[in-house]
Design brief:
Radius of gyration: 21 Å
CATH class of the largest domain: Alpha Beta
Order of helices and strands: HEHEHHEHEHHEEEHEHEHEHEHEHH
CATH topology of the largest domain: Rossmann fold
Strand order of the largest sheet: 9-8-7-10-11-12
CATH superfamily of the largest domain: Glycogen Phosphorylase B
Number of helices: 14
Mean pLDDT: 92
Distance between the termini: 27 Å
Number of domains: 2
């Protein structure tokens, strides 16, 4: 399901280690054009990940569980699931895997039911939904009301019926709960920290920690003496207002963004440093005074570990959940892309000081520790 670079970054350490050990690695990815930005495509066998390209009418009701997310973004009926299943089987039969690592790939997990290989679900807390409740991956802040209970029950029944119709067509034993999609996995390897788990701290699954990005462009800041602000943002209508606000406050802004309108870059290029390629965050976060981002897990988590106050302008529910965790830790300010102004949010942000995290987060966040846990997982599985 993933389309941004963070999904590829989550797989990079696993792929690099497997290649170094001499294993044959095959990667099925949704957005092929992004692969070379993060990985060496010459070291792997590359496939287009199966997906249904459709134009759904947006639902008027908010998504309140991972089950509903699958139905709205991946497959909604038996015919769509069957197409995805057949495509995944073609890939699996070609590769003949001993181990499959699933990063935000529910249709691949459905296609793997009753197949015998090692299965690992990896990713941030959001990418691996919780299975220890009544329903699969109920989103944070969902009120325990009769209306929500009925919606959750209806969506789970609908998804279960869709999956089991496929199982029936294949002559296989039906599953009893949609949670079995994820419970079939031998490992849940969470590339996050307990305090940042979107769904809350869980007992099943292993927290690997946060990998710090130490690759990319050397950060270059505008001249001046004002605070250094690193921003990682996509375009939205209020972005010019934010840049104007920061310039008025003499902030030295380094903005990493892809596919910005050329007229916006021309308008601000004398005051803002624009880059459209990944920045070395390890260096940038040593130098920055503040970070502005959408609450995307990797950037927000690394900024938190570095102790930098963040302005979190969320655009999707996943980003909202991560942002709320950071706000709860009093290390960020929550904002909306639809706000009328951002001056008040900036004032709240400047009240926060750059301080190291107040819990034992750093010891569980070094790249060496993350890599060690990944190597341990490979070794324990016999690879």
């Amino acid at each position: 399901m993933g389309s941004n670079l963070g999904h590829l970054a989550n797989l990079k350490l696993f792929i690099d280690h497997a290649v170094a050990k001499g294993h044959t690695v095959s990667l099925a990815v949704r957005e092929l054009q992004n692969v070379a930005t993060v990985l060496d495509p010459t070291s792997i066998q590359l496939f287009q990940a199966p997906l249904i390209r459709h134009s759904r009418i947006p639902s008027q009701s908010p998504t309140i569980s991972f089950t509903q997310l699958i139905q709205r973004q991946v497959f909604a009926d038996h015919h769509e699931l069957t197409g995805l299943y057949l495509a995944w089987q073609s890939i699996f039969d070609t590769v003949a895997p001993d181990l499959v690592i699933y990063e935000h790939a529910p249709s691949a997990l459905v296609a793997s039911l009753h197949r015998e290989w090692q299965k690992w679900a990896v990713g941030s807390g959001f990418m691996v939904p919780r299975t220890d409740g009544i329903f699969l991956g109920v989103f944070p802040r969902v009120a325990k009301t009769e209306q929500h209970y009925r919606r959750l029950l209806e969506s789970e029944k609908s998804l279960l019926a869709c999956i089991n119709r496929l199982q029936q067509d294949l002559g296989r034993t039906p599953i009893k709960s949609v949670k079995e999609i994820y419970q079939q996995c031998d490992q849940q390897l969470l590339l996050t920290l307990p305090e940042l788990d979107h769904f809350g701290i869980r007992t099943d699954g292993q927290y690997l920690g946060i990998e710090f990005s130490n690759q990319g462009l050397e950060p270059v800041w505008p001249d001046g003496s004002g605070p250094k602000v690193f921003a990682y943002l996509g375009y939205f209508p209020k972005l010019p207002d934010i840049l104007n606000m920061l310039i008025k406050r003499h902030a030295r802004v380094l903005l990493y963004a892809r596919s910005l309108p050329s007229e916006l870059i021309a308008r601000f290029q004398d005051k803002v440093c624009f880059v459209d390629k990944p920045v070395n965050l390890s260096i940038a976060f040593q130098q920055a005074d503040y970070v502005i981002n959408h609450g995307n897990h990797s950037t927000a988590a690394q900024s938190l570990v570095a102790g930098i106050p963040q302005l979190l302008i969320w655009t999707h529910q996943e980003q909202l959940f991560a942002s709320l965790r950071i706000v709860k830790l009093q290390r960020g300010v929550l904002a909306s892309r639809h706000q009328s102004e951002y001056e008040s949010s900036w004032e709240k942000l400047t009240e926060l000081k750059r301080t190291p995290a107040q819990f034992d987060i750093n010891q569980r966040s070094t790249n060496e520790h993350v890599m060690k846990r990944i190597k341990d997982a490979f070794r324990q599985a016999g690879f």
